[in-house]
Write a structure and sequence with these properties.
Helix 3 runs parallel beside helix 4 and helix 5 crosses helix 7. The longest helix has 20 residues. Helices cover 24% and strands 25% of the residues. With 544 residues, it is α/β, with parallel strands linked by helices.
Length: 544
């Protein structure tokens, strides 16, 4: 079967159709689904010709890792005085793009940051011809227009290219997210035929690729879609049920060299990530964890998960954030209870072993992978049973700032939607930060040198989780550290547990900028958490 036309063109031909002043939507969760070849060549075209210029970039997450893709381009833009390539960006996460952060902190570009879930869903809303996204997520946080409205610097607050508005419906408050509709979308798949039908069999996720393509094609003023793929197929040879992006949505196809088509940040291709091979998830697949304060926190979170399994009478569905909460997967495998705690990653994988660092977003051996907007439905709708997320600051109202400081603006990532949507949130992290020396063993915690950075503060720098709103919505919220466990109540944070071997005044209260309520039945944390060997959680589930 053949066609009278072929959408495969050179990368130069494809990018010649990107006009000055474009709003360019780019797929990418770190390097997963990132069209790195298109990004690099678009920059080179500007460098050599001065066009296209004055671009506004929107992504569902971040199409970059350090010195790759968008961060590589941002560094060149940063080093060029008077650059006219990029005027602004809407990125949910910039943690892997330090030069994007530098450009924003020096007010050289506009920068806006919404939650990943908001951005992913916004593409679908725009593709449906709607003016923006209406949701309750973000109330009382930095996304609320009564605070920052998602603007990350002064230039963004001045120009307001992306806006968040407060709307009331039947006496309830909602936020309305607006951004300019893309007229160019750059996406990525694995295989394409001449018509432009695209499959994603070697990709680690589906991400928001389809919705990003649709957003450019929607009325008014339909734009163009340029797709980067790994290989070319004959029209009619692709299984229709494998096609993720139908050909009529695509204008130009570009075959990328292998070095610009990595599955994730450090992995070019692993069949266990794409689902081609499904390995057994055993403790041998996971790195062995030493018994330290980080494992203590992960174990205490796991205890809450076991309670929930017994309460529900079966497996639970959860989201585990990066950092210490992600270690709950290791604890579950070590204890033999992985089948009872079904994990999800916001990018789309269900189950398996979630990878960390620059590879975050893909998993080894997931049993299902769905598009990212559909995954965030599980979070925003409270379909999951619980979430465990990290924290950098917690204040007396139970508000949480996971990552932002005046000289650091990594964006919220998926945090706002996951934290606000889940019916139960277990925040996990170290009680203090900075250089410290803690010893765990024999059922106790010994603090030989404590960190000098206080994390329990009077007021967090940026509110990314609002404790008051969570209470209004009836959520269960715990704050779990290696030396104490707090619960959010109408009366503030209540200290419910303290680690064996820890002094209440010296090791806790003196290291907080506010005094919590002390529970009448203040108890010690389970000593099993502080001992070598298994805790016996599998037997607890059987008894439950």
């Amino acid at each position: 079967m053949s066609l009278p036309y072929n959408k495969f063109v050179s990368v130069e031909e494809a990018l010649s159709h990107v006009p000055d002043g474009s709003v360019v939507a780019i797929s990418g969760f770190n390097m997963a689904t990132t069209p790195e070849y298109l990004i690099m060549k678009l920059w080179e075209r500007y460098r050599d010709t001065g066009h296209p210029k004055d671009l506004f970039i929107i992504s569902d997450t971040l199409p970059a890792t350090p010195n790759r893709a968008l961060d590589f381009v941002a560094r060149r833009v940063y080093e060029e005085e008077g650059q006219e390539f990029i005027r602004g960006m809407l990125l949910p996460f910039t943690g892997w793009a330090p030069y994007v952060q530098k450009l924003a902190m020096e007010n050289r570009i506009e920068l806006y940051s919404w939650s990943i879930g908001m951005a992913a869903y916004w593409f679908r809303e725009v593709a449906s011809g709607r003016p923006g996204l209406l949701t309750s997520i973000g109330r009382g946080t930095f996304l609320d227009p009564r605070q920052d409205g998602g603007a990350m610097n002064d230039l963004a607050r001045e120009r307001r290219t992306c806006r968040v508005s407060l709307i009331e419906i039947d006496g309830e408050e909602y936020l309305f997210y607006e951004a300019p509709k893309p007229n160019v979308s750059m996406i990525r798949g694995t295989t394409a035929d001449e018509m432009g039908n695209i499959t994603m069999e070697k990709e680690g996720i589906f991400g928001t690729v389809l919705a990003i393509a649709q957003a450019a094609k929607a009325q008014p003023n339909p734009g163009i879609v340029i797709a980067q793929v790994e290989r070319e197929a004959r029209f009619g040879s692709l299984n229709p049920k494998d096609v993720h992006v139908p050909g009529p949505l695509v204008d130009f196809l570009v075959v990328a060299p292998p070095q610009y088509h990595w599955q994730s940040g450090t992995i070019m291709y692993d069949p266990r990530i794409s689902g081609t091979i499904i390995p057994p998830i055993t403790p041998n697949l996971l790195p062995k964890m030493e018994l330290n304060e980080r494992k203590v926190v992960a174990r205490r979170i796991a205890l809450e998960m076991v309670k929930l399994v017994n309460k529900k009478g079966g497996p639970i569905l959860v989201n585990l954030g990066i950092g210490i909460p992600a270690m709950v997967t290791n604890v579950a495998a070590e204890e033999g209870i992985s089948d009872y705690i079904v994990t999800t990653i916001e990018s789309g994988p269900w189950g398996g072993l979630a990878l960390m660092g620059e590879d975050f977003g893909v998993s080894i051996g997931p049993f299902a992978i769905i598009p990212m907007p559909d995954m965030f439905t599980n979070y925003e709708g409270g379909i999951i049973d619980a979430a465990s997320l990290g924290f950098m600051q917690i204040d007396k109202e139970g508000n949480v700032n996971p990552s932002m400081l005046p000289n650091r603006m990594p964006g919220p990532g998926g945090f706002p939607v996951i934290a606000a949507g889940s019916p139960r949130v277990f925040f996990g992290g170290g009680f203090t930060a900075g250089k410290k020396k803690l010893k765990v063993g024999d059922g106790k915690l010994r603090i030989e040198m404590d960190g000098n950075v206080i994390k329990f503060v009077k007021n967090v720098y940026k509110i990314v989780f609002n404790g008051k709103v969570a209470l209004e919505e009836g959520k269960e919220v715990l704050y779990i550290t290696e030396r104490a466990v707090f619960r959010l109540t109408d009366g503030g944070l209540v200290l419910e547990e303290i680690a064996p071997g820890v002094d209440l005044d010296r090791d806790l209260l003196s290291k907080m900028e506010f005094k919590p309520v002390i529970a009448d039945d203040l108890r010690e944390m389970d000593p099993r958490i502080f001992r070598e060997g298994k805790m016996g959680l599998k037997d607890e589930i059987k008894r439950g």
